[in-house]
Amino acid sequence: MIRMSKEMTAFTMDIFSLKGKVAIITGANQGLGMGYAYALAAAGADLFIPHLTDDVSEVKQLVEGLGRKVVFLRGDLRDKKHIQEIVDKCLEEYGRIDILVNNAGMNKFCDFLDFQDEDYENVIAVNLNAVYFLSHKVAKVMVRQRSGKIINIGSALSFTADKKCPPYVISKHGVIGITRTLANELGQYNIQANAIAPGFFQTDVNKDISSDKAFYDKITGRIPLGRWGSVYDLMGAVVFLASSASDYINGWTLGIDGGFSTTL
Ligand SMILES: NC(=O)c1ccc[n+]([C@@H]2O[C@H](COP(=O)([O-])OP(=O)(O)OC[C@H]3O[C@@H](n4cnc5c(N)ncnc54)[C@H](O)[C@@H]3O)[C@@H](O)[C@H]2O)c1
Known about the structure:
alpha/beta, seven-stranded parallel β-sheet, Rossmann fold
């Protein structure tokens, strides 16, 4: 009989701890990213937050209130120079990168036939190309370390399409492809790449549609748990995927959508 007890008894809740780890979370000065930032800091990580918009005071106060360090870098993820700068500055500040959460994203709502090329290109540049370019650069650091966790943010629209947001749907389907590719390429270096696919959460990215009561109610009616998500619903999952509790999970996407993707 193969004895399991030696491996089993090595288990403690410390496998969820992120003490001593450094995490980059893009766009975490607001919205769901701020929740990922708080969760990773609460689990012990120090943070590096690249951000587009001005105000970082709320997330700074929250993270520092937990006794963790946070460093900010302002820039646009469509700019490859900014992407290189993220890696350089994070290494300068902390000397390592253990976790990358590719959270920043945008959407543009418009009828398909009226979509402007530029709007398509913008969404793809942020939601897809920046995920690839930043992961590619961070991976080189993680390969040297022989460890790392890459967590991409997909969407319920990674698995299905909806009208009026074609580039978003295309980009979020692509995020699953990037995740699987990274898992395939980097597993040999003890780097795990996984994704989270949130369902529906009221934030800036969907404020144009979520403030429409008919749409809000239609979506609520399709969610088996009967409610839109709260940022709190995502926080345990990001810690799990960033920690050694998920060391044998690689290339998967965890849907956090109240069951939305299971229904017709
Ligand atoms: N809210 C939802 O229901 C939902 C559902 C599924 C997936 N998501 C995804 O979650 C992630 C976070 O979105 P959110 O809902 O918190 O919305 P949000 O608009 O509050 O956050 C998006 C973040 O991305 C940043 N960003 C946008 N364009 C950028 C650029 N060019 N360069 C740098 N940063 C840029 C924004 O400044 C912001 O910090 C996104 O990837 C989004 O697609 C959200």
